[in-house]
Amino acid sequence: MSDLKKRWGIETNFQLTIIFIVFAITGSASAWLSKPFCFWLGITKSDLGYWLTPVRLVLIFPIYQVLLVLIGFIFGQFKFFWAFEKKMLKRMGFGFLFKE
Prior knowledge:
This protein is mainly α. The chain has helices at 2-8, 13-41, 45-48, 52-74, 78-91.
């Protein structure tokens, strides 16, 4: 854990625990929210069949990004999660969204 704390620039085990909790809540919440979001968009299993799962996974991605920063803010870790988000999106080719 000390290597992870050093890599992420975290000083305390408490902060690391909060970050893990935020990741857990965000992952669960984004998966949970994808179903009503699909319903709201009119995307159903009868329309897509086996394609519903890949479509939901694509929908989870932006939901997850927003929730990660929002829930991180609620838990007082906005600075960490905003930097984490920017780094992840830059690696995925969305670096043009952030000006240096």
